[in-house]
Design brief:
By secondary structure, the protein is an all-alpha fold. 67% of the residues lie in helices and 0% in strands. It is built from 3 helices and no strands.
Length: 79
């Protein structure tokens, strides 16, 4: 049985990509009020990188999942 919490071996993520994901995460948080659609897009990118590296259930992905879900919920409420 595959371990979904472990790192993926399909596409390794470089340290630069992880640093870029962190910068993108901070950018997304800054855009939450001004451009929520862009923030959601950026958070999706962050999650893609982090889940490739850490795995879907890793604690390192929790903050991105939280804000991504929160932003999607707020967008759904606004419609």
């Amino acid at each position: 049985m595959a371990d979904v919490a472990g790192p993926s071996t399909a596409e390794p993520v470089t340290a630069e990509e992880l640093e870029e994901a962190t910068a993108t995460f901070l950018e997304a948080l800054a855009l939450r009020d001004d451009d929520p659609a862009k923030a959601v897009e950026l958070l999706a990118q962050v999650l893609e990188t982090r889940t490739r590296h850490y795995g879907e259930s890793a604690p390192e992905c929790a903050d991105a999942y939280f804000y991504y879900g929160q932003m999607l919920f707020e967008q759904a409420q606004a419609q």
